[in-house]
Amino acid sequence: MLTAFAILTDGLVYAAYLFIVAIGLTLIFGVMKILNVTHGSFYAFGAYGAATAVGIYAESGLPAAVGFLFMVGLAMAIGLVLGIVLERGLLRLVYGRDEVVVVLVTYAAFLILEDVIVLIWGPRSYGAWQPMVAAGSIDIGDLTLSNYDIILVLIAAGLAALSYWALRFTRYGRLLTAVIFDRETAAAFGVNVTMIYTATFLIGAMLGTLGGAVMAPKISVTLGIGVEVIVLAFAVVAIGGMGSVEGALIGALIVGICRAAAVHLVPQIELFVIYGVMALVLVVRPHGLFVRAQPRKI
Amino acid sequence: MTRGTLAGSLLFLLAVAAGPLLPDWVVSLATIAFANALVVLGLIVLWRVGLVSFGQALYYCVGAYMVALMARWVGLTDAFALVLLGGIGAGAVAFLVGFLIARYREIFFAMLSLALSMILYGVLVKTESLGSTDGFTVSQPTFLGYAPHQEQLGLALYWLTLGIGAVAALAIGAYFRSVAGAMAAPIRDNEIRVEFLGVSVTRLIHAKVMIAGVLGGLGGALAALTVGHVDPNMAYWTTSGSFVFVTILAGAGSVAAAFVGSLLFEVVRSFAVDLMPQLWQMTLGSVLLLTILFLPDGLGSLVTRFATREKAKAP
């Protein structure tokens, strides 16, 4: 019983993390049909930015909540700058090329940004644990839960609700849905697709850095953290169906629970259970769980 | 015999003859480069139908571990048999994987192959008996009873790699000229029309996945023998990434481009890592970007462009 509860809570926390990193990826894919490998860099930049912010705040002696907001704010500002540079400076040049070619362009940008991180922050690793400690922990029965993990789950739930609301009830969200459904028709009806693309990429980039920022206190911020995130986020998005926000949520929950179950029951398979689940889902539903059928173009 | 084949055979003979004259490190660098070129050759087969596999390291790693395990468990040391087994092993994996993956296109193909190679990576990292993340050493190979050491071993592996590379280049060249190979461009342009002609695209792609798998396995097997060590990083997605990189750099235009591109890549890598280790990935990324933006058909297209211009001049 205790194990089951532990699996559930661990799974939820892990799912929250996965959802936060996957939502930006799925949003950019859904709208722009770009599988953005640079998302891993966004995550890494967010984490490094957060570590810097925590370093500054730890010396200032301000309350923890301010430090947390400062951390998130700085990371998202970095995401904004990165997003503008990448979308306006690079991706704009390759719109209309094969999807696979665009993936390679983002892969190239990812490689460059990996070294930019070294140039800015150096090869050493950073800790940003202060917010995690400041949040404290609570005991539920025999289990100790970190409050920070609960905050993480709340952030993920908040993001899910926010994106649901934004996509359905705001002007931008409806325009976005139109573009997702059919870019050319939307453009013919006067939707400014270029503007939508830029805005979406910026939001996606900021979600990526946000993911890095909120995870920074839980991990050691070091080189190569972006590399793992990108494949992980992709697995989640592929299970749910590329471009679907509900899909990313369900995918994150499935992967989160499966991984937590693996960690508690059969630790040997922990590393590949994620990809195993992904392969299994794709065998049954080749394009993920939540995906609209595509018409064949002859 | 076309001019391309002639030039290729001359270069091949030159490379064979130059072996004993070159310093050790050049020989081992070239061996690794040509072993990797086999993997790239496989990627070119797929690239021609518009597919990019971000998980070719799966077959590379299977080939390498096949060699290492055969030497370790069975005590087989003959290089010819080991490399052959590496290719067969990877081909068998590709055959099974093909049933799943041949239905996918574009980025789904790229990313599903990536996921599969990551599964292997995860399995290997968690397998303590195979050295986990450290991997283990591969025993020195023999060549039909001949057991060279040090420089002779390096040279023997170099020639073996060249020989297998030449056979593979000829075979793939023939494949490109065959009907199945010529189907690549139409599939890339419009798959459904090809289906309407009565050709099973899925089966063709399955065959191409297998060809690429066998080539990946051969490359991995040769690399394992040359390096003398295998580890799970051979299956990590960044390994696949560098193969894709060379493929884009070389372009899918010709078979020779795979070998030249791979050699160029290894040379640049060994110098860049020495001179500016901090900027290596940045260099890689910039070159990749510039290639995609300004040379969409790869370095090989420069040669073709030059050749056609020459032809146009002399009517």
How does this model look, in words?
The complex is a heterodimer of chains A (298) and B (315). Chain A has 298 residues and is mostly helical. Chain A has one domain. Chain A is 77% helix and 4% strand. Chain A is built from twelve helices and four strands, in the order ααααβαββααααβααα. In chain A, the strands form two sheets. In chain A, strands 1-4 form a two-stranded antiparallel sheet. A two-stranded antiparallel sheet of chain A has the order 2-3. The relative contact order of chain A is 0.20. Chain B has 315 residues and is mainly α. In chain B, 75% of the residues lie in helices and 1% in strands. Chain B is built from 14 helices and two strands. Chain B has a two-stranded antiparallel ribbon with strand order 1-2. In chain B, α2 (24-47) crosses α12 and α3 packs across α4 (79-101). Chain B is globular, with a radius of gyration of 19 Å. In chain B, 49% of the residues are buried. The mean pLDDT of chain B is 83. At the A-B interface, α3, α4, α10 and α12 of A face α5, α11 and α13 of B.
Describe the secondary-structure layout:
The complex is a heterodimer of chains A (298) and B (315).
Chain A: H1 2-32, H2 39-60, H3 64-94, H4 99-121, E1 126-127, H5 130-135, E2 137-140, E3 143-146, H6 147-169, H7 171-181, H8 183-188, H9 193-215, E4 220-221, H10 225-240, H11 245-265, H12 270-284
Antiparallel strand pairs in A: 1-4, 2-3
Chain B: H1 3-18, H2 24-47, H3 57-74, H4 79-101, H5 106-126, E1 136-137, H6 150-177, H7 179-182, H8 184-189, H9 191-196, H10 201-227, E2 229-230, H11 237-250, H12 255-275, H13 280-294, H14 300-313
Antiparallel strand pairs in B: 1-2
Helix pairs in contact in B: 1-6, 2-6, 2-10, 2-11, 2-12, 3-4, 3-5, 3-10, 4-10, 6-10, 11-12
